[in-house]
Amino acid sequence: MPRKLPPYCECFHDRHGKLRVYFRKGKGARVALPSAVGTEEFLQAYQLALAGKLKPETKRESGPASGTIGALIHSYKRSAAFADLRDTTKAGYRSRLDAIGTAHGHRSLAGMTRANIADKILNPYADRPGQRLAILKMLRVLIRHAIELGQLNHDPSLGIKRPKTQEIRSWSDDEIAKFEEHWPVGTKQRLTFALMLYTGQRRSDVHRMTWADIRGAAIRVVQQKTGAKLAIPLHSELRAVLDHVTRDHVTILNTEYGKPFTVDGFSQFFRSAITAAGLPLDCQPHGLRKAAGRRLAEAGCTAREIMAVLGHKTLSEAERYTRDADQARLAEAAVTRLEAQKKNEYSQTAQDGVGNSRQNRRKNTNLGLGLALPRGLEPLFSP
Known about the structure:
Residues 166-335 form the Tyr recombinase domain. Belongs to the 'phage' integrase family. Keywords: DNA integration, DNA recombination, DNA-binding. The protein is mainly alpha-helical. Helix content is 46%, strand content 8%. The protein has helices at 40-50, 69-77, 80-83, 87-104, 114-122, 129-149, 173-182, 188-199, 203-206, 236-242, 263-276, 286-298, 303-310, 315-345, 358-364, and strands at residues 9-13, 19-23, 31-33, 214-215, 218-222, 229-233, 351-353, 356-357. It is extended, with a radius of gyration of 35 Å.
């Protein structure tokens, strides 16, 4: 605490924890003083303030200039739409909003044309399609906010194509087997793997799972991203892994210090486990969610059954996870029908000539040893 303050002085700690000392006489303007109360520097400033020779603090600027992208960002951050977002979503939005504001906050909304958006805002991310897509999505959120405020009467981003990004793929069965071989039952890495594969949930939901979520033969999940409430039956493989875990904490997965994982910490932990198992970089944690959907599809589950496990809201989302399985199943059915049609066209009892069927001809074709040749080899021994 500072020493006793002289008359007309006040002090407090700001939101950053820094001590602030001010001089204010009556209803006059507030004047900032050095925070080191009692020092020579402080006393000199105090005397100048008493004499009215020290200028008061100037009022800070209220924000970016009106009609600019910076002002639109400032407005959106204070909107109800932004306030209603989940904390994790807000953090991601802030990062992208700050990037846009820093680089383009001075630009006017009137100059936000499709050409300018593509050339000045998106082109710097030409070699980073993932970030380019994220910035485009964020711009469209801002544009919708501007239209609601009446600052724009149309969407200038219409016609700008979404950049193609590499889709996270499903783990193959061989990769799943390789991970299980490297990390045996009883390890934290195998527990993490089993929870992700056999519940089909996202990292943000798996790392928050608690023992209390397991009720009877199911585990209950409230998805952080969608808010969907799910009850997922425990797969026998997952039950076998859970039986080897000591229930020392509230959460199922914890750090080596006994604390729950953060999302980033959980991602780093499981990424290290994947690398240690000798799997390639494109084996992403989210790929286990894809693998869960793929396996459900290969087992013959309907899209709605898959939605019930993965928690999707629309059929198109479920179909995106099961596309490869559906293609393989349909292709197999098509080739099976083709082969069946071929067999019907060439019946074993079809006649080559009068009283001479293919079946009889096959029996009569031999090497002079009185033995019938295997089917399919007759042409090799034709005269």
